[in-house]
Amino acid sequence: MKVLVVGNGGREHALAWKLLQSRQIEQVTCVPGNGGTASMSQCQNLPLGIDDFEGISQFAQKEKISLVVVGPEVPLAMGISDYLHSQGLKVFGPTRAGAQIEASKAWAKALMQEVGIPTANAAVFTQASAAKSYVKDHGAPIVVKADGLAAGKGVTVAQTLDQAIEAIEAIFRGQFGNAGKFVVIEECLVGQEVSVLALTDGLTIRSLLPAQDHKRIGEGDTGENTGGMGAYAPAPIATPELMARVEKEVLEKAIAAFRAKNIDYRGVLYAGLMITPDGDFKVLEFNCRFGDPETQVILPLLETPLEELMLACIEQRLAQMPPIAWKQGAAATVVAAALGYPGTYEKGKAIAGIAEAQAAGAIVFHAGTKLQDQQLLTDGGRVLNVTGTGENFEQALAQAYVGMRCINFEGMYYRRDIGHRLKG
């Protein structure tokens, strides 16, 4: 079968890589893809925009694509699944109505409060003055969120009132575009964050391995929020007992809430959790797609063919599938970023050492790269993900860092403390 993957990041490279491990997959096309997907055998890039629904549909029909996998949240929020469904194509990813769970933090917060999903106390504002008054009344630390999609950068954990007010002003000033129409202000929760991704056909939920991301740019979890600087799986803090509770109290409640609203949700439902020091949890946010960089540590441990799980979701027969099979051991990934990320950064820097990293045993997933005249160049803020696997976290992290030290480009930056919580 032929598969089309929409997107150009490390997540999409990992999806294409995993799909091509199946004997059932003869070809993967990535739209628009990156330098890594351009370099894989049985994989090609198609230079279309992720919002060119008509172009994607025409190609998929002409090439008899059996499955379209949508990676990023933006086309899902725009309704790509609805459009491609209407053209008779099989699409893995929720409809526009379902994607609201990520596209609007205010909508998601209202849904959680409505059905009793544990989450932080919050208020939603449409005017900066009212939002500022609220934070002055409640004090800091406090969390300020842009309502819509902001590439993982629309959240400020304000330690002071001045930081909170500055974040509110930035959101209403339009720093995050359409995400600045509303602001959500939440109580500040303390603990460790865990990503729980699950597959669903709208009726049944199957959780994937829990992962732990490192969102801050600086070592010791300091500095600005990013799209993620590294991750590992399975996260030990998400014990089997906690996962059972999350499935019952979060995931199943969310899917039931979708059904009550006549939303047919099929795809990934991703709950970002805060595990509190007493071992309890609250939902920080929901996402409507695979996480990035969580996908880069979950998929290397997956044994069940990915396309079989995706088709079972699309065809609403997930309950009939055997339990998901996983490899023993652990996986860890480290992100190499461009100098200046998550702020402004330069592109077009030559990348060296990929082959050496792979020879050392690491898996290199490309994110912000492009292949130009046979030269691999940087083309984004998060440039590469170097993933290691092993019998334990020590081996997985060692392999990832050995691979990372093989790679070089001008201004390359990466955190050297990924997995630091594992030592506590």
Structural key phrases:
Rossmann fold; five-stranded parallel β-sheet; alpha+beta
Q: What is the arithmetic mean of pLDDT?
A: 94
End-to-end separation: 46 Å
Most strands sheet: 5 strands, parallel
Strand order of the largest sheet: 3-2-1-4-5
Shape: globular
CATH homolog superfamily of the largest domain:
ATP-grasp fold, B domain
Q: In the CATH classification, which architecture of the largest domain applies?
A: 2-Layer Sandwich
Using only C-alpha atoms, the radius of gyration works out to 20 Å
Multimeric state: single chain
Q: What is the strand tally?
A: 22
Q: Quick one: CATH class of the largest domain?
A: Alpha Beta
Which secondary-structure class do the elements indicate?
A: alpha+beta
CATH fold field value of the largest domain:
D-amino Acid Aminotransferase, Chain A, domain 1
Number of helical segments? 14
Low-confidence stretches: none
The share of residues in helices is 25-40%
* Range of strand content: 25-35%
Quick description:
Helix 2 (35-39) links the parallel strand 2 and strand 3. The chain has helices at residues 10-19, 35-39, 53-62, 73-78, 80-86, 96-103, 105-115, 128-138, 161-172, 240-260, 295-298, 306-314, 354-359, 393-406; strands at residues 2-7, 27-32, 43-45, 67-70, 91-92, 122-125, 142-146, 155-158, 183-187, 192-200, 205-207, 212-213, 216-218, 222-225, 230-233, 267-275, 281-287, 330-337, 363-366, 369-372, 375-378, 382-390. 50% of the residues are buried.
